[in-house]
Design a protein that fits this description.
Layout: H1 3-12, H2 20-30, H3 32-39, E1 43-45, E2 50-51, H4 57-105
Antiparallel strand pairs: 1-2
Helix pairs in contact: 1-2
Length: 108
């Protein structure tokens, strides 16, 4: 399907699109099927893919970018926690490993 056909399909199913140029750019950059995850909750019927009344493409994009930003934030937090915890965790593991090996290497 072309971008214009994708927009026609979405509009035909009841999704309101205020700016078709912006919608084309988003569909081109993100893809129809990737965005489908973000309009799923706006569908009144998941078999026919008809949208609930007053469903807007801009809401779909807002959900997509919120999710993208949230994932980036969580990833950055994970990296910071890893950098803070890893040296300490590594020290504990090495110490514990060495202690366990001492008792096995030199039995009484």
């Amino acid at each position: 399907m072309t971008l214009a056909q994708q927009i026609q399909t979405l509009q035909g199913r009841g999704l309101m699109i205020a700016d078709t140029n912006k919608a084309e750019q988003a569909l081109d950059a993100i893809s129809y099927f990737r965005l489908a995850d973000y309009w799923y909750h706006l569908e009144a019927d998941h078999h026919t893919h008809q949208f609930l009344p007053n469903s807007h493409f801009e809401e779909v994009l807002a959900c997509y970018f919120f999710d993208k930003d949230l994932k980036a934030l969580l990833f950055n937090c994970q990296i910071e926690n890893h950098q803070a915890l890893c040296p300490n965790l590594w020290s504990v593991l090495v110490y514990g490993f060495n202690e366990s090996r001492k008792s096995k290497a030199f039995p009484d």
